[in-house]
Amino acid sequence: MAVEAPLHVAHDWDAEQDGRPDTLQVCDEATLRKALDGPLLTRPLPGHLETAFRHHTRERAARLLRLSVYGMIAVYAVVSGAAALFTDEPGLNTWLLVAVLPVGIVLALIWLATRLNDMESIVEPLLVGGVFVSILGCGAAALYLRDDLFAQIAAYETIYVLIIAFSILRLPLIRVALASLLAFVLAAVAMVAMDHPVLWLDSLLYFMVPWTLCVVVGAMLEYAERKEFLQNELLTLESLRLRDMNQQAERALARRTLQEDYLSLIAGNPAAEVLFLRTLGFLVERTGAQMGVAYRLGEDGLLHPMASWGAALTRRAREEALDPAGTLLEPVMAQRAARQVRDLPPGYLPIVTGSQTLKPGAILVVPVCQGDDVVAVIELGRLAPFSAEQEEVAGLVVTHFAYAVQAALLRRQQRRVS
Length: 418
Known about the structure:
Helices cover 66% and strands 10% of the residues. The chain is an alpha+beta fold.
């Protein structure tokens, strides 16, 4: 059937879009382009875009942690284990307690977090807090041990933590920068409060200079990531627009194909009885109905049965005219609009199969109008309710059917006169 496939594709596309998580929500192209042209670091993205970007970065950080947590734990174990086994410098115990233990606790918490399904909701505070604790411990160890070998190792650890936080995980720039700076300042204040000499030049080289460089690199990376995020959203918006245009084109083609198939079916000026039967059969086939009845509205205001399909009609019902007053057809004819009825009276138009008679689950009543006048009425029945696409099929056919009915009746009158 030429029209069913395109309509089915369009219906599935609508269902897919209804279930799709809408990242853009109701964000137009102008908003995205304005955000691209504006400052990407000094001001949040407009509307919900900032929230969407933060969600995007949290998902990426969580994904990276799930992939790399075992590698970080392995490196941590190798370095700390080798130092503990093969070095007997006096600062070993201080380094293990002040620098290694906090990092180990942070790694353990990260590993536990990777076991959670909703890790994205806690990954940001977890990592910002982990950076703070790690810098505080490693910085305090480096400041306290001064010229010891493990002071140098702790100093290198601060650099590694900064690189991972700013360049690899790309955590929120301002929060990580403030958390790491605050941690080192607290470590330095603790040393001053303890009257412990501090090698300020060394701390400048292993923390302040790397911290400054990491902040600059982190700002560049976040700027690039924000720009890429907005560009991807623009591409997504354009893709959705193209898919919508394609969907509309498919629906237009389906409607046109349906109408062409129907017009070819009724070509040749068939008699009114043949016209009604062909039309009813076409609608039954294209809507998936199991039964149907077609009536012609006579000049006496009564509905004259012209064709039936799969309906258990009595001989009297097939031959006698029907007064629409008080029936389900009356309001439909008055409103001149199709209507689907599901709560049917007992015994209303039962569906006849080869072995049994079934009650329809829904009846679609379609008035056939020529201008403001109703010229015919079609009833279609299904065991299941009619979909919007099936109702649309009936609406596309009845306009042509109305003209064909008028022409067939006019030819009949002319034959009678002649």
